Amino acid sequence: MPVPLSVVIITFNEEANIARCLQALADVADDVLVVDSFSTDATVAICRQHGARVIQHAFAGYVEQKNYATSQAEFDYVLQLDADEVLTEELRQSIRAAKQNWQHAAYSLARLTNYCGHWVRHGGWYPDRKLRLYDRRLGRWTGVLLHEKFEVDAGQTTAPLAGDALHYSYHSIAQHVSQLNKFTSITAQELALRGKTQVGLFHLLFKPLWKFVHGYVFRLGFLDGFAGLCIAGISAWGVFLKFAKLKTRTEHAEA
Known about the structure:
Largest sheet: 9 strands, mixed
Strand content: 25-35%
Shape: globular
Mean pLDDT: 96
Low-confidence stretches: none
Oligomer: single chain
Structural class: alpha/beta
Number of strands: 11
């Protein structure tokens, strides 16, 4: 008998994405739970139209929200998705196979990202594997403010799944820049909490330069054309912003 599977998704104003995500779950999910942070658009209505359970829960951070969503799932076996991710048929087959013969604490899936209409396969953006299918009794979501990840207990094993989750990330350059501004502020705060407060020319000049060269040249980002150039350039700018915000934050704290 296959193990029963809960799919959990956290949302806030995801009306543009959530229906596409939910439509791909019919043959893998035995329970679909959406934990919504009080969206002001049609997200909740769309979720209920597709038969998902919806719980409203104030957002307290990505780690906290995903652990809360996991705890509210009906079953111990959980697939965590973001609203802008869609399972391909190959990945659904892999998940169904894992349900029939569950052998590990968690399974990783590859994400193939759509950036402004272009599928990105280079620059370090693919396969972008994440542990997303897991037994909640054998691990938990960890992290500080950002870059959350599911971490299995010591001694537990993981395995990769075949197939991709299609990740519809950024629809425009403006959206990428806006999100970058938000995330670099959070990352700077996270670095400060970890006690990393020293920022010099190396961080502000050479780290951004290396980020561009590493992604665009060594990770073959140039093969993705204009999208690859935009990703490398904006990613490098993000490194600069992160450290510039950290430096400003540190100086204000010392003043």
